[in-house]
């Protein structure tokens, strides 16, 4: 590989229920992005794409539909949020990762707190490429269901992104009758849906070790990674509860 390295790593990861799943980690240092993909315990395929260049992260969930309840084979959702520094290791470091024991089942060393995000803005798919070129590929199945939040939009607008791709969604304050989907008895009424996902294992930090040369001079070098697990819950408006059948009182 030249200066721009592309690499894929497959890691066996233990899910909260005890099942083992395989997670795929891909890094492209030329495009300065990384992506992780895993199948959750409920069968949903969850992908996280981190676009370091644009400071954007994209979560995509492909959720198996309930055919007997009139849903299609699967439902796709995309949640786009701001990528902060030090959330995940850089793409060039990810591209260099190797594992000595591919059969090892891994669990994250650190559990980062659950993040609850109110996704109050819709993103127009056809214009989304200028926010991140990855939206076009990652969210192709979720054209009508790409969500972000107002505070992230403000950050991107200050960077010069075109505001016409964003549309503010109805809020509970605008529509007092708007309920959470899990409390809404009518399947065809609009409501606020909740979807939770978890990235079970990802390299969140680089570890540095110190070495001393013959003259006693101390220097530090990268000597590994720290792994994290993090869960997210996204709340967002849907025009009908039929689009949110998983969010029901159990």
UniProtKB/TrEMBL annotation:
The lineage of its organism: Eukaryota, Metazoa, Chordata, Craniata, Vertebrata. Signal peptide: none annotated. The gene is Oaf. It comes from the Eukaryota. This is Out at first protein homolog. Pfam families: OAF_C (PF22873), OAF_N (PF14941). InterPro entries: Oaf, Oaf_C, OAF_N. It comes from Pachyramphus minor. Residues 180-248 form the Out at first C-terminal domain. Residues 8-156 form the Out at first protein BRICHOS-like domain. Belongs to the OAF family.
């Amino acid at each position: 590989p030249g200066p721009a390295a592309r690499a894929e790593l497959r890691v066996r990861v233990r899910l909260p229920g005890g099942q083992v799943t395989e997670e795929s980690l891909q890094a492209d240092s030329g495009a300065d992005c990384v992506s992780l993909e895993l199948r959750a315990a409920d069968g949903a395929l969850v992908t996280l794409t981190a676009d370091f260049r644009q400071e954007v992260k994209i979560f995509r969930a492909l959720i198996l539909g309930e055919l007997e309840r009139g849903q299609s084979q699967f439902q796709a959702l995309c949640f786009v949020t701001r990528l902060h520094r030090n959330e995940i290791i850089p793409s060039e470091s990810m591209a260099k990762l190797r594992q000595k024991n591919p059969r090892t089942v891994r669990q994250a060393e650190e559990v980062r707190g659950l993040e609850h995000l109110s996704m109050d803005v819709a993103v127009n798919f056809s214009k989304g490429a200028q926010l991140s070129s990855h939206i076009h590929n990652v969210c192709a199945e979720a054209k009508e269901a790409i969500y972000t939040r107002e505070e992230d939009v403000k950050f991107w607008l200050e960077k010069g992104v075109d505001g016409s791709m964003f549309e503010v969604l109805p809020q509970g304050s605008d529509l007092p009758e708007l309920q959470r989907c899990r409390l809404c008895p009518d399947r065809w009424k609009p409501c606020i849906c909740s979807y939770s996902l978890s990235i079970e294992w990802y390299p969140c930090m680089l570890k540095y070790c110190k070495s001393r040369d013959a003259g006693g001079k101390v220097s530090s070098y990268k000597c590994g990674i720290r792994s994290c697990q993090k869960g997210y819950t996204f709340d967002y408006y849907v025009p009908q509860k039929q689009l949110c059948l998983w969010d029901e009182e159990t």
